[in-house]
Amino acid sequence: MSPGNSSDALAFLLVGIPGLADLHRWVFIPFCLMYLIAVLGNCTILLVVRTYQRLHEPMYYFLSMLATTDLGLTLSTLPTVPHVFWFNTMEISFPVCLTQMFCIHAFSFMESSVLLAMAFDRYVAICYPLRYSSILTPTRIAKVGLGIICRCTLTLFPLICLLTRLSFCRSHVLTHSYCLHQDMIRLACTDTTLNSLYGLTLVLLIVILDPVLITVSYIMIIKTVLGIASREEQAKALNTCISHFSAVLIFYVPMVGLSIIHRYGKNAAPISHVLMANIYLFIPPVLNPIIYSMQTKHIRKVKCLLNLSKAAIQPGN
Q1: Cα dist. 258→42, 155, 182 in Å?
Q2: Could you tell me how far CA 43 lies from the centroid of its own chain?
Q3: Helix count and strand count (H, E) for the chain
Q4: Residue pair 122/221 in contact by the 8 Å Cβ criterion
Q5: CB 252: neighbour CB atoms within 10 A?
Q6: How is 62-116 classified by DSSP, letter by letter?
Q7: pLDDT of residue 99
Q8: Which PANTHER family does the annotation name (predicted)?
Q9: Contact, 286 vs 250, CB < 8 A?
């Protein structure tokens, strides 16, 4: 690996779990299961929503967006994690690392934006139920989806350009089995002030702003629900938010934990960085399909119909 600013020759070294190098193949088994569950679960949601006409509603369109971003987040780490844990191949070239970093952060930001859009969906459904279909039309939902893609990809291009201007003449060993922005700039031997400032701006505009707006949406939802006279109707209204609220917690809590460790946990054990990053990237795509399948009435009904259909076509029935 040649130091300096030659992007073609530059390479980084990925790492697995510190102190468990001899057990990497065993450690990869749960990773493999998580990949399988995430891909099958999110593909199932996309297939069910696309196939059944009764699910062609705003809530399920946004759920399809969430499943798509979860798939993208899962597949972003797939090129390197098996190589590190199963094949013990640690080296990754600078262009490939840059591409992976872009994909991971883009899909992560998209998931945050989709969760914000889903919060708005719940707000409109509960606070303005009679205007729900007229406000969230398929055309507007498509525009929201396009806006999310533009917001989360175009804002990352300056970050990529800033990274290509850096020189990496220190240790080229990263702290994860995939590439993250904060991990890469830590290894630069030139001034990274501009990178840090732009990265902080993105964090403020997306990672901080989105949960704040989600919180505002839930405050308005709770205010509306408390105005409903019937306890049964209150519970019914809040029940439609359980899946989304769970998805918000599953996504943002590990993200906050990872940010705190990267900023203030310099003396923390290396395994804590790796563990928190893996929870942040792997757990939401695995749990979101399970949560929505359990909590969403229409998806449960569709699954029951599928099971009945399979039973009906079995020989002897």
Answers
A1: 24, 21, 11
A2: 15
A3: 14, 2
A4: yes
A5: 19
A6: HHHHHHHHHHHHHHHHTTTHHHHHTS---EEEHHHHHHHHHHHHHHHHHHHHHHH
A7: 95
A8: OLFACTORY RECEPTOR 51F2, OLFACTORY RECEPTOR 56B1-RELATED
A9: no
Per DSSP, which regions of the chain are E strands? 11-13, 91-93
Under the banding of pLDDT at 50, 70 and 90, the label for residue 3 is very low
Q: Does 4 have pLDDT greater than 50?
A: no
Contact criterion met (CB below 8 Å) for 60 and 117? no
pLDDT of the residue at 1: 41
Q: Is there a contact between 271 and 26 (Cβ–Cβ < 8 Å)?
A: no
CA quadruple 125, 47, 255, 117: dihedral, nearest 10:
-30
* 150 φ/ψ angles, rounded to the nearest 5 degrees: -65, -45
304 band by pLDDT with thresholds 50, 70 and 90: low
Report which of residues 203 and 152 the model is more confident about. Answer: 152
Provide the angle, in degrees to the nearest 10, between the axes of the packed helices 94-127 and 270-295. Answer: 40
Q: Which of 10-19, 62-71, 122-131 has the lowest mean pLDDT?
A: 10-19
